[in-house]
Design goal:
heterodimer; A: alpha/beta; Glutaredoxin; 8 helices; 8 strands; 39% helix; B: alpha/beta; FAD/NAD(P)-binding domain; 2 domains; 24% helix
Amino acid sequence: MALLDDNVRDQVAEFLKDLDGSVRLVVFTQDFECEYCAETRQLAEEIAELSDKVAVEVYDFQADAEKAKALGVDKIPAIAVIGAEDYGVRFYGIPSGYEFTSLLHAIRTVAAGEPELSEEGKRFLAEVDQPIHIQVFVTPTCPYCPQAVTLAHQMAIASPHVRADMVEAMEFPHLAVKYQVMGVPRTVINETVHLEGAAPEPMVLDKVREALEGQ
Amino acid sequence: MKIQPLFTGLEPTPEPKGPEGEAPLYDLVIIGGGPAGLTAAIYAGRARLKTLVVTGPLPGGEPSNTDLVENYPGFPEGIAGGELARRFQEQAERFGAEFVMDEVTEVDLSERPFMVRTPSAVYRARTVIIATGAVPRRLGVPGEEKFFGRGVSTCATCDGFFYKDKRVVVVGGGDSAIAEGIFLTKFAREVIVVHRRDRLRATKILQERAFANPKMRFMWDSVVEEILGDETVTGVRVRNVKTGETSVIETDGVFIYIGLEPQTQLFAGQLELDEWGYVVADRHQRTSVPGVFVAGDVQDPDYRQIVIAAGTGAVAAMEAERFLEQEQAVAE
């Protein structure tokens, strides 16, 4: 059964109609598909059907371990959104519910290769020369979360040193425990710096600065 | 659990629109993308007004925060709050309203066209509808700020999952407190409602369900004085308002539903607000500034219902249309 109904399919097709470049959705699942692995793969495939510029590649997390390692994928289900280059945009867990919108925005901005950030934000991120790993914990029923996820992904697009993950907390409860997630969105930068809630760009940039200074 | 992909279709940030002198001019700029603003956008679009909705941080507004809406007519089985909000928006887009997902940082209502500024753009507006809604009120007690997002929440649909088999406290006694408290029993092993009065204010049907729910307990005549914990929330200190006695309830989380505060900081000093900060409106949703209309929770201290927000949104849009027509007639 299709995950996207006709109505949503029309909207998605419309949204993806003028993509500036090609995008690959690199999906990691496994032979015996995990609870949301099958649905994540199907979701990616249904999106790809709606745009000739979006393609899906499916890999097995075990059999294609080398590929997973090369893309830094350490858990499944995973989607790496890759355009002209790999900007480090990742989704762990199914991007459903409100996060479906985050996935579509990621596709569109990765296709363009141009982050939707303020000039000041772009300038700051262009000068970052150390690795920054942003993890945004979400639940699919959180209306505030896509804002935090999309902002993190934009920052990944803006800098080769920044990678950004959406992490669906319900599917990775051990990570929710590890990072003390009791509310979403919760953004974790380089394991050390935390931010609760959907914060505006300047506030998140301050946190990135804080993480850099702590290194 | 099956979760449907939900496409809210909004831009995260709009394209900057150039310097102030060339700011695009709209017949109507609607500030706020909840039921009031979206309904106004439906009516304005059908009236063929050039309409822009600046949605604010929560697409769909307060219903997006609601698990299930059971009192909006036309949905006999109830409808998920987020899905209802999405449909409102889809309908508004169908009639031509434009949307930007951005927050208004400044408005100038002192001369026309009015000016509406966001971090990335400036818009000019012949008329404005204020539909900024209200945000959950905080308790203002020690520990609340420290644990906000880490054990203290105002969004059960977002954070309920993290309280699986745990004990949570819900503060409040109105519809939101009781509906979300019932929702939390899907996850939590126990939900304790702390309410400052000796009876609930919530709709009777919600009260019936809450009292019948074996996971729910009630602490009457009680207010939370402090949220306790070191690394995580471990409890709340509660004071009985009748006896003055204080006690500590052990809990893993606190959900606060003690009402809403109107979002009117942007407009202070520019139009008439009442002593609680709500925008003062007449029965045609007109504010004290001609050409500026208001709808929804930001002008409604009493009811805060989706159906009423939608209703006032419709009135505001029809009045904005009439205002522009009359102005046009005078000019000719």
